[in-house]
Design a protein that fits this description.
Radius of gyration: 16 Å
CATH class: Alpha Beta
Helix content: 10-25%
Strand order of the largest sheet: 1-4-3-6-7-5
Largest sheet: 6 strands, antiparallel, barrel
Order of helices and strands: EEHEEEHEHE
CATH topology: Multidrug-efflux Transporter 1 Regulator Bmrr, Chain A
Oligomer: single chain
CATH superfamily: Regulatory factor, effector binding domain
Low-confidence stretches: 1-6
Distance between the termini: 50 Å
Number of strands: 7
Number of domains: 1
Number of helices: 3
Shape: globular
């Protein structure tokens, strides 16, 4: 019998279908934002868990978490040295940097290592062009932690473009 701790679900199994080449209309979709230091677009591993944990705690303490099927953690890199993380929430969270995203967003799913993000970005821009749109801003959603990606055999990454 498998060890019960080995079967503990950290990240839920991701279903790419709702995100593959889809259009999403967001009207004041609530998120909380935090910042993550990085070196040449690579997050500092020791900081990733701390920042996400801090965001999750604020959302949970405010009873503002969303269901696992709705959960999004978007990353936007305004520079090689800093990433902005956006965690969607059910409502405003006291003491957090609350932001609302509105507009049309298109998404495309990729499956592979983080190191291939530049190739995924090139392919995503090709997809955006093929649907006759122009990207204003690109976000990435890394759907599972590395441990769960190994467990499930997939490392899904969803690219979102505000168009």
């Amino acid at each position: 019998m498998a060890n019960q701790a080995d079967e503990k679900e950290c990240c839920p199994k991701f279903d790419p279908a709702p995100w593959q080449e889809k259009t999403h209309e967001w009207n004041d979709k609530p998120f909380i934002r935090d910042y993550l230091p990085q070196i040449f677009h690579m997050p500092l591993p020791s900081m990733m868990g701390k920042v996400i944990g801090r965001m999750w705690k604020k959302a949970k303490d405010a009873d503002a978490t969303v269901g696992l099927n709705e959960f999004l953690l978007l990353a936007y890199d305004p520079s090689p040295w800093k990433s902005e993380l956006y965690m969607n929430v059910a409502r405003e969270v006291p003491g957090a940097d609350n932001v609302k995203l509105s507009g049309t967003f298109i998404s495309k799913v990729f499956d592979g290592p983080y190191s291939r993000v530049p190739a995924y970005l090139k392919e995503f821009y090709g997809y955006i062009d093929s649907v006759g749109k122009k990207a204003k801003k690109i976000y990435f959603y890394f759907t599972t932690c590395p441990k769960c990606a190994r467990k499930y055999g997939h490392n899904y990454i969803v690219a979102f473009a505000e168009v």
